[in-house]
Design brief:
The complex is a heterodimer.
Chain A: E1 4-7, E2 10-13, E3 19-25, E4 32-38, E5 44-51, E6 57-58, E7 67-73, E8 76-81, E9 90-97, E10 108-109, E11 113-117
Parallel strand pairs in A: 2-11
Antiparallel strand pairs in A: 1-3, 3-8, 4-5, 4-9, 5-6, 7-8, 9-10, 9-11
Chain B: E1 3-5, E2 10-14, E3 19-21, E4 24-26, E5 32-39, E6 46-52, E7 59-61, E8 64-69, E9 74-79, E10 88-96, E11 104-105, E12 109-114
Parallel strand pairs in B: 2-12
Antiparallel strand pairs in B: 1-4, 3-9, 5-6, 5-10, 7-8, 8-9, 10-11, 10-12
The chains are: A mainly beta, B mainly beta.
């Protein structure tokens, strides 16, 4: 079945540094990928919609200059957390929809990235 | 606006018991899709089922079954003869409003199945 690979699975960084998270669709093309954030014992909150070849669409309240999204190809989207602070520590999950997939086709999720900012 | 409510924050059962996870949704759209996902302790989201708004047939897959009732805007999930491996957070999610395919998730229900 369709697989979405997310890397790294865990990352610890110092406050003020930037961290890049990759989301790859391994056996399908994805024109649209979604980035979610999950706080401990909380639901998943959509951060942004990543569109191949165009700018990402951010949800209300999400700082686009802080969470940079690049979707340069049909199989790769990246989320860069810039100038990370401890409050950015969270679980980030990407998902992808297969290009040309029917509306009933489910989103495929990556395994998530646990970011800890010290 | 769309909303998903999972009123049960945590449920604890003993192995072999049946358990039902509730999901109530709100949307103004007539066409929408409902999903259930499982998130085990490892963190990944595992797709379980999708249902479109025009298909109210209940579905059974092994020990899992789903009851979709538009009249009450509910899409409940039952696990029969629960097992320890069923322990996870279960999310109900809704997509409506067209092709952008954004999912609105409920807050999740933590299911703990004790041996």
């Amino acid at each position: 079945g369709a697989v979405v690979s997310q890397h790294p699975s865990r990352v610890i960084c110092k406050s003020g540094t930037s961290v890049k998270i990759e989301c790859r669709s391994l056996d399908f093309q994805a024109t649209t990928m979604f980035w979610y954030r999950q706080f401990p014992k909380k639901s998943l909150m959509l951060m942004a919609t990543s569109n191949e070849g165009s700018k990402a669409t951010y949800e209300q309240g999400v700082e686009k200059d802080k969470f940079l999204i690049n979707h340069a190809s049909l199989t790769l989207s990246t989320l860069t957390v810039t100038s990370a602070h401890p409050e950015d520590s969270s679980f980030y999950i990407c998902s992808a929809r297969e290009f040309g997939g029917a509306l009933l086709s489910p989103l495929h999720f990556g395994n998530g990235t646990r970011l800890t900012v010290t | 606006a769309q909303k998903v409510t999972q009123a049960q924050t945590e449920i604890s059962v003993v192995e072999k018991e049946d358990v039902t996870l509730d999901c109530v949704y709100e949307t103004r759209d007539t066409t929408y899709y409902l999903f259930w996902y499982k998130q085990p302790p490892s963190g990944e989201l595992v797709f379980l089922i999708r249902r479109n708004s025009f298909d109210e047939q209940n579905e059974i897959s092994g020990r899992y079954s789903w009851n979709f009732q538009k009249s009450t805007s509910s899409f409940n999930f039952t696990i029969t003869a629960s097992q320890v491996v069923d322990s996870a957070v279960y999310f109900c999610a809704l997509n409506s409003g067209g092709s952008n395919y954004k999912l609105t998730f409920g807050k999740g229900t933590l299911l703990t199945v004790n041996p």
